[in-house]
Amino acid sequence: MMANTSLERGLTILAEVAGGADTTVEGVASRLGIPVSSTYRYFKTLKSHGFIVEDGGVYRPGRALLALGGQYSVQNHLAEVGTAVLRSIVENVGETAVMIIRVGANAMCLRCAETDKAFKYTFAVNELLPLYAGAGQRLLLAWSPPDVTKRVLDGELIRFTRNALDADQIRSSLIQIRSTGWAMSRGELDPGSVSVAVPVFVSGEVVCSLNVAGPEARCGSKTWVTSALKSLNSAAENLALSLESLSPTINTRKALDAD
User: Does residue 99 sit in the same domain as residue 217?
Assistant: First the structure.
């Protein structure tokens, strides 16, 4: 049904974005029977007031809209700022950067920024990943609740490569990760890959990991690892500060334990 007034159109568009699915100007214009040019002006106004955010032509609920429903959470903020955070890491390190969160007993790529180099490692946004293999994933496992850790390690551990770790090796690595504050993987998911990851803490909880991955030919040296960790830690610190600044309105109880 076509909205008759400017207010009705704005509210209708806001409801479209609040529906949860990724939204485009063209898609909303088509569904509501509103000219694309007019729809764009509504989107521009809503964005300027923080009701929606834009990422590559796709619009999602912004902080102001989510706050109205009491739904603003760590994950929402991570999704909102993740691409910019990762792009800054790519500029410094020159390899693919990934933001990973825990979803129950799995990991998920929430955001990814890729290098422009011909040979690179790629991740798909919203791709589920094993929580026990890969630097960013094992780092999240290291700070997971005991019941999650037990469920993962007692379950089937698929060996994706010859470098895959067994259950005892994973347990040992989790102790080391918690001690050093970072994780490293060499070819656990993809042969010839190297990745390093650091945690992002908010109110004592690890809300995500920031991960950089590339081929061993470029990323195998201690110098590269040191440089990558410096960039990752700086990004993680800035991200944590931005999350903490949202307290107490932000919901730090992540909905990550539901399967």
Answer: yes
Round to whole Å and give the CA distance between 157 and 196.
21
15 and 104 within one domain: no
Whether 98 and 136 have beta carbons less than 8 Å apart is answered as yes
> Does 41 lie in the same domain as 98?
no
Residue 217: strand, helix, or coil: helix
Please give the chain's pLDDT, 259 residues, in tens. 444 577 888 888 888 877 655 688 898 888 888 889 988 898 888 888 878 878 778 887 776 666 555 445 677 778 888 889 999 999 999 999 999 999 888 898 989 998 887 677 778 888 889 999 999 999 999 999 999 999 999 999 999 999 999 999 999 999 999 999 999 999 998 888 999 999 999 888 899 999 999 998 899 899 999 999 999 999 999 999 888 776 554 555 444 554 4
State pTM to two decimals.
0.69
Structure tokens at 198: 């650091």
258 lies in a domain?
A: no
Q: Which is nearest to 196 in space by CA: 206, 182, 181, 207?
A: 182
> Could you write out the DSSP letters of every residue in 151-194?
HHHHS-----STT---HHHHHHHHHHHHHHS-EEEESSSSTTEE
